[in-house]
């Protein structure tokens, strides 16, 4: 090493290392904000919910009395509403989404794929409040006139399709949720189907399989785990959706079999009642509802991520 | 026998293909229908008054949503001030500095945050800002949207920075440029278009958020005075007007919904147009 080399080395270790270190630490600090935020969310919810947790304990989850006047709270009807609406949403969204993903990766002519993908991404971009608004004034009356009578006549012997309907109900909330989670399930499923190796398909074609058989045997069954992850991801989204559901579910606590009844979800009860909750126990109960909602969505999302990571999709795997 | 089986398989094949096609049409239908109804019901109410006037009291017709439109932009401005620097720098760390294992946890945490229900964000910022400040405020609304932007921006920034060829970094470092200057002046600058795209998409995403604003920004019927007071926002106004029993308010809510949807779609489509080449090559 000559003198110049030493100088360069000296310069870079003396002057500019400070900038390097400072910048690195700054970015590290900003990156760690995600950990801080998670901790903060947990802390704030727990802090707000403390009075309610102390008073009701585990009973909060299995009690169905919600009585702000007497300060007695239980979240069971809301847990029920959240699960049922999300289940209905999955029932509708999963077949539609996966079929659309298959259409996009296996069947559609190339010129059609791009515009269709854009349409689906735009559907995902529609604000929840607009979907709720449209759902309330356009979709619900239409369902009421055309779909519900049909369901009643076809499936009226089932307990699900009995009971009066007054417009907004559990079923309409589930349908709007399906509209909201279809884009995410479709686009994640599409990524997964795209990552299925071409050899899989070729091998099946070589055995004389038809296009559908190739899709079923070589593509869908190969991608099972990843698709399951996509569905769970959609479920995570459905569980926490607030505005559209609040506008379409009718907002009355309900536990029962009829999908025509008005219901209430964890998210919608917070949206509806939080501004009225001046009493610490009341707001504490709503904070605890939020805590339950957070816990459920975190679990579901973490499960989805793990499924997607373990499925050998190149984009889903952690890089490096 | 074999021929019949073959026929049955082919029929099934055609049926399934048609079925998939029908599903794709069903999936896209709501977008078209929503657009159609918003234009049908909202377009006639969009006029100069709508953008410049305050809402009128119940019973009086006319008035506009000027304050809500201004309020939405104020909230988005605050959100960008919080969300963009933190998100972009965090993304830089993920792409340029982090070790694989630590990055895995960071990404995992960011994805988890992206999955936190928006109403829960509202509760958190209520506890964090509204209670200590003893009141609903525009500041709280900006903060909640800003926090929601952080994980979104972080992930997209990281993704675009990965697209910058390693050769660029090596070339700059070989010339003796320090690492942080390389990152800022070469890597970030090369990927700037992509970063801006990510930021715009994040803004579009939070611009329609209503639930987190319900008990942070709260809404207001007058012009925004300062950040310590409640502020109106388009999505809040849509919600309140849509759920009201007055026809004239419904009319305005349709118009507001159309304006908000156009804003969101405009950003989304504009961004696609801006980054067309990269986007095409991805598909």
Account of the 3D structure:
The complex is a heterodimer of chains A (320) and B (283). Chain A has 320 residues and is an all-alpha fold. Chain A folds into two domains: 3-31; 76-310, MetI-like fold (Orthogonal Bundle), CATH 1.10.3720.10. Helix content of chain A is 74%, strand content 1%. Chain A has helices spanning 3-14, 16-31, 33-56, 59-62, 76-107, 110-125, 128-155, 170-194, 198-206, 211-220, 224-240, 243-248, 266-273, 280-310; strands at residues 66-67, 72-73. In chain A, strands 1-2 form a two-stranded antiparallel ribbon. In chain A, a hairpin with a 4-residue loop joins strand 1 and strand 2. Chain A is globular and about 70 Å long. The model of chain A is unreliable at 1-14 and 314-320 (pLDDT under 50). Chain B is mainly α. Chain B folds into two domains: 2-45; 50-282, MetI-like (MetI-like fold), CATH 1.10.3720.10. Chain B is globular and about 70 Å long. Chain B starts with a helix and ends with a helix. Mean pLDDT of chain B is 91; it is low at 279-283. Chains A and B meet through helix 2, helix 3, helix 5, helix 6 and helix 7 of A and helix 1, helix 3, helix 4, helix 5 and helix 6 of B.
Q: What brief labels describe this structure?
A:
heterodimer; A: 320 residues; mainly alpha; two-stranded antiparallel sheet; globular; disordered N terminus; B: 283 residues; MetI-like fold; 12 helices; 0% strand; disordered C terminus
Q: Topology, please?
A:
The complex is a heterodimer of chains A (320) and B (283).
Chain A: H1 3-14, H2 16-31, H3 33-56, H4 59-62, E1 66-67, E2 72-73, H5 76-107, H6 110-125, H7 128-155, H8 170-194, H9 198-206, H10 211-220, H11 224-240, H12 243-248, H13 266-273, H14 280-310
Antiparallel strand pairs in A: 1-2
Helix pairs in contact in A: 3-14, 5-8, 5-11, 5-13, 6-8, 8-11, 9-10, 11-14, 13-14
Chain B: H1 2-42, H2 48-52, H3 66-97, H4 100-114, H5 118-133, H6 138-162, H7 166-174, H8 179-190, H9 192-207, H10 234-242, H11 247-274, H12 276-282
């Amino acid at each position: 090493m000559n003198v110049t080399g030493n100088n360069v080395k000296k310069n870079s270790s003396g002057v500019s290392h400070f900038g390097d270190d400072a910048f690195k630490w700054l970015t590290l600090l900003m990156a760690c904000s995600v950990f801080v935020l998670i901790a903060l969310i947990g802390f704030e919810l727990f802090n707000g919910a403390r009075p309610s947790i102390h008073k009701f304990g585990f009973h909060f989850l299995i009690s169905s009395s919600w009585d702000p006047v007497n300060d007695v709270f239980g979240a069971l009807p809301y847990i029920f509403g959240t699960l049922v609406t999300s289940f209905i949403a999955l029932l509708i969204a999963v077949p539609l989404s996966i079929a659309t993903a298959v259409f996009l990766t296996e069947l559609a002519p190339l010129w059609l794929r791009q515009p269709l993908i854009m349409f689906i991404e735009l559907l995902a971009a529609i604000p929840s409040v607009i979907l709720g608004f449209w759902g309330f004034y356009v979709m619900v009356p239409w369902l009421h006139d055309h779909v519900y009578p049909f369901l009643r006549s076809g499936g009226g012997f089932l307990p699900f399709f009995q009971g009066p309907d007054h417009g907004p109900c559990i079923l309409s909330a589930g349908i709007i949720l399906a509209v909201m989670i279809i884009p995410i399930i479709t686009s994640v499923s599409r990524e997964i189907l795209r990552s299925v190796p071409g050899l899989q398909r070729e091998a099946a074609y070589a055995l004389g399989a038809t296009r559908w058989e190739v899709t079923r045997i070589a593509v869908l069954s190969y991608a099972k785990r990843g698709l399951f992850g996509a569905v769970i991801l959609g479920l995570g989204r459905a569980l926490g959706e607030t505005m559209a559901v609040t506008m379409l579910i009718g907002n009355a606590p309900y536990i029962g079999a009829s999908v025509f009844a008005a219901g209430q979800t964890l998210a919608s009860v917070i949206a509806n009642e939080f501004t009225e909750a001046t009493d610490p126990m009341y707001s504490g109960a709503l904070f605890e509802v939020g805590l339950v909602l957070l816990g459920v969505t975190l679990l579901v999302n973490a499960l989805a991520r793990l499924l997607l990571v373990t499925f050998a999709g190149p984009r889903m795997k952690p890089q490096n | 026998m074999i021929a019949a089986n073959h026929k049955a398989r082919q029929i099934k094949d055609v049926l399934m293909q048609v079925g998939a096609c029908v599903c794709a049409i069903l999936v896209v239908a709501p977008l078209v229908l929503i657009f159609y109804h918003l234009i049908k019901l909202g377009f006639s109410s969009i006029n100069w008054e709508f953008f410049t006037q305050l809402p009128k009291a119940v019973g009086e017709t006319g008035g506009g949503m000027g304050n809500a439109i201004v309020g939405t932009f104020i909230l988005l401005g605050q959100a960008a001030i919080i969300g963009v620097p933190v998100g972009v720098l965090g993304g830089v760390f993920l792409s340029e500095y982090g070790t694989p294992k630590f990055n895995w946890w960071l990404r995992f945490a960011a994805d988890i945050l992206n999955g936190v229900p928006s109403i829960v964000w509202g509760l958190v910022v209520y506890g964090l800002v509204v209670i200590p400040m003893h009141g609903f405020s525009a500041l709280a609304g900006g903060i909640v949207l800003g926090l929601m932007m952080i994980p979104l921006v972080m992930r997209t920034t990281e993704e675009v920075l990965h697209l910058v060829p390693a050769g660029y970094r090596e070339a700059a470092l070989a010339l003796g440029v320090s690492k942080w200057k390389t990152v800022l002046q070469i890597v970030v600058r090369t990927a700037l278009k992509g970063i801006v795209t990510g930021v715009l998409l994040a803004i579009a995403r939070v611009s329609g958020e209503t639930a987190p604003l319900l008990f942070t920004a709260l809404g207001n019927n007058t012009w925004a005075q300062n950040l310590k007071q409640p502020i109106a926002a388009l999505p809040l106004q849509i919600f309140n007007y849509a759920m009201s029993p007055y026809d004239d308010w419904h009319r305005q809510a349709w118009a507001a919904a159309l304006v908000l949807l156009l804003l969101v779609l405009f950003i989304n489509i504009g961004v696609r147009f801006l980054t067309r080449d990269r986007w095409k090559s991805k598909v």
